[in-house]
Amino acid sequence: FFFKQKTAYEIVDCDWSSDVCSSDLPVVKHQPHGHIGFSQAVGCNTVFFAIAFESLAVPMACRILSAHGITARVKPSDGSATEPAVPLVRTRGSELGWRTDWAPGVSSSLSWWQLDLSSELVFVGDAGETEASGASKRHGIEAHHQHAVADWLTLEADVAWSQARFKSDQGDAPHAGRDVPGAVRSVVSVGARVDDRGPWFGQLQWRYFGPRALIEDGSVRSHGTLLANARVGYKLRPDLRASVDVFNLLDRKASDIDYYYVSRLRGEPAGGVADVHSHPAEPRTVRLTLTWRY
Question: Are 230 and 202 in contact (CB under 8 A)?
């Protein structure tokens, strides 16, 4: 699973809060750890950008499944000793994109990115551990649009598509293949944000994660997940505010993450049964927050 949160124009020094047009000359920024970035302004409202880098990075699965594969010294299944996974792998990447401000409060961006990783960490469900797998290549497209339809109301939409593939067949026969288990291909987020409506503020967001391959040959896939979250808040004083968050607003029966592996329940064959195992999404949950700024 890989869904980037920052694009290159945030890495290259661009100040989007300024109303002053800095320069129409190209800007090239050399970043630490083998980064190089380039941005070209077209007028005051549009920028084309590019970045390329080579560095050491944490394998993708560690960012989602925590660092168990790196810190583990024994196998959860039988307590025997195991070698921890390599915490950093060689990574090469690049990104090309465009961003423009159509009008005050209205902006769009579009970017293409790619990553080459020397190794992936894959969760092995029946052993309860993560293990290093083969090298992979990931690429994708991201689009963002923000529209302030009023002084107090902003609409936002994000769409991301990506593909993650091993560079050679991985997994065990007869299900060997090149799909990276658990890698999401499509993510869509749509929301509305209310600010400065008198003392009131709030937010409503829908987020969709598309189906994922659960095994290397792609023959078993998860279902998509659609969840809605909401927030309503009230400013009691300039330094004090209260808010109520509702997670999984529609109380949907969905899964946060799915795995495919062999397990055995009472009455099943001694060799177990290969099936999908899911971690369910939390049911509708309400959280009350009181924030004091000092």
Answer: yes
Q: What percent of the chain has pLDDT over 70?
A: 77
Contact (CB, 8 A) for 176 and 16: no
Q: Is the pLDDT of residue 33 over 60?
A: no
* 91 class by beta-carbon count within 10 Å (0-12 exposed, 13-18 middle, 19+ buried): buried
What average pLDDT score do residues 47-52 get? Answer: 92
**Cα–Cα distance between 203 and 153 in angstroms, integer?**
10
- pLDDT band (50, 70, 90) for residue 246: very high
Q: Which residue has the tokens 């423009």?
A: 100
Is the pLDDT assigned to residue 171 strictly greater than 90?
no
Specify which residues 285 forms β-bridges with. Answer: 247
Q: Is the dihedral of CA 53, 57, 62, 66 positive or negative?
A: negative
More confident residue, 174 or 24: 174
Q: CA-CA distance, 154 to 146, in Å (whole number)?
A: 7
| pTM (2 d.p.) | 0.77
| DSSP sequence for the chain | ----S--HHHHS---TT--S---SS-EEEEETTTEEEEEEEETTTEEEEEEEEEEEE--HHHHHHTTHHHH--B-TTT--B-PPPPS-EEEEEEEEEEEEEEETTEEEEEEEEEEEES--EEEETTTTEEEE---EEEEEEEEEEEEEEETTEEEEEEEEEEEEEEEEEES-TTS-EEE-TT-B-EEEEEEEEEEEETTEEEEEEEEEE--BB-STTS-SBPPPEEEEEEEEEEEEETTEEEEEEEESTT----EEEEEEEEE--TTS-TT-EEEEEEEEPP-SEEEEEEEE--
How many residues are recorded in the chain?
A: 294
